[in-house]
Amino acid sequence: MHLRLLAGAILALGLILPGARAAQAVRDIPHSEWNAPQKPFRIYGNTWYVGPYGLSSVLVDTGQGLALFDGGLPESATQIEAHIRALGFRVRDVKWILNSHAHSDHAGGIAALRAASGAQVLASAAGAHELELGGADPGDPQYGSAPQYKPVKQVRVVRDGEVLQLGRVAITAHYTPGHTPGSTSWTWDACEGGRCLHMAYADSLSAIAAPGYRFIDHPAYVAAFRKGLATVAALPCDILVTPHPDASGFWEKVAQRKSPTDVAPLVDSQACRNYAAGAAKNLDAQLAKERAGAK
Ligand SMILES: [Zn+2]
């Protein structure tokens, strides 16, 4: 009887939450598994996954040097370098390292990767500031609780909407503040046999705060956050990759591929819209919780 009740409850949850399930984490990868090994592989065309299992690092072969999005944790750098080599590329050919946001789980490995490659590091204006502070930015909702890392100096600042011509690939920076003040999403095209797809590396959108920080106390920040969500929703987006792959169901999509060249399960032109919609719901829930707690 109890088992049947439990099964019924699980079924009911499944019926109630399919939207939420599609829009956000299908399975949260615990922190302990963030740096777990992951075989590198081609996502599509010029774009490869070279991160550990729980933290995305995305490599783009521009034809005239490699561009790398994010460097994982400090301890992820050696794994990312090994993945680049395993694919037949050279670490010293990484000419650009672009950051989503300056938390230790995406920027912690950048100093070592730059040292190994000599690459230029690129970020938004606020992102560059946060990198130079080693992740200790008082304007970050997670300031005080987010782990710090080796500061990254001499970061090239990229403007909102700026199109970078890196080798033969045009990469656009989209400021999407909220998770951090400097959060940035990046888009480019990847082609195979004449079929080009819009790639979106959309930043984390979770409204997470250190103890004592309330988003309701920062209305201008929340307004910028909502603008960032609208930006993500409108990105050119056939294939979405997020800094935490589980935040957009990436591994479930990869598991559905029938072969390593089967891109169909990864293609979803609504992915960015759904990702932003799920995040908007979470932000609203966070604000409601804060308002309830403030009474
Ligand atoms: Zn973060």
Question: Explain this structure to me?
Answer:
- Strand 4, helix 3 and strand 5 (94-98) form a beta-alpha-beta unit.
- Helix 3 crosses helix 5 and helix 7 packs antiparallel against helix 9.
- The protein has one domain (34-294): Metallo-beta-lactamase, Chain A (4-Layer Sandwich), CATH 3.60.15.
- It has a 7-stranded mixed beta sheet with strand order 1-2-3-4-5-6-7. Strands 8-9-10-11-12 form a 5-stranded mixed beta sheet.
- Helices cover 33% and strands 19% of the residues.
- It is an alpha/beta fold and 295 residues long.
- The longest helix is centred in the C-terminal third of the chain and has 24 residues, at 271-294.
- The structure holds zinc ion (ZN).
- Zinc ion binds at residues 101, 103, 179, 204.
- The site of zinc ion has 4 residues, from loops.
